[in-house]
Amino acid sequence: xxxxxxxxxxxxxxxxxxxxxxxxxxxxxxxxxxxxxxxxxxxxxxxxxxxxxxxxxxxxxxxxxxxxxxxxxxxxxxxxxxxxxxxxxxxxxxxxxxxxxxxxxxxxxxxxxxxxxxxxxxxxxxxxxxxxxxxxxxxxxxxxxxxxxxxxxxxxxxxxxxxxxxxxxxxxxxxxxxxxxxxxxxxxxxxxxxxxxxxxxxxxxxxxxxxxxxxxxxxxxxxxxxxxxxxxxxxxxxxxxxxxxxxxxxxxxxxxxxxxxxxxxx
Length: 266
Prior knowledge:
The chain is an alpha/beta fold. The protein has one domain (12-206, 233-258): 3-Layer(aba) Sandwich (Rossmann fold). Helix content is 43%, strand content 14%. It is globular, with a radius of gyration of 18 Å.
């Protein structure tokens, strides 16, 4: 009896925000599945280099220092990936910012609104545009390969589906990624590029630590999750990996809620 394999041999994946948290775990899982992986970081060079080395080093896993706040930044990262590995089969858009302080809409600074949209949306346009062009212009990976021509997974949030008071900027961007998923699926599925979305809720990462560890905010966050706790990064990265394997070859335009049932509460 043979086991079930989540095999990404001969595939090249680009994972944004890969130096820590969900991104770093996604890099690890994709590399373990056999993919060659590129990821970007903004400033944490030493941490990014450690992730690269832990997952095969420059020939298998390469880190690029690349800001992501404009379409040009996104296109540049795709170009760097193709220059390193000659092709691109998978794009995982994981990066993003969540300003942690409450900002009621009547008081939110325009600069905050613009920055959140720039990082969480503008760069995504450039990433997706360049990735699609590359995927459409290349053959499938491997000799005689079958299956999808490419996979794109966008990371949204429960906030994108039910909103988040005092964080309208973030919620707007995550809702837009869900709409983008559906639009791209309708457009690209006929050419063999499958586009899906993973929507986490609270995840135990550095970005959420201040809230989850707060004596009042932490229990309040957990109370809104039927499973009673935040997710681990592995519990998010695993579904992302699944969506990029042949086992998910008939899934397109889906919003996969990986949030312990939180999106159904409230």
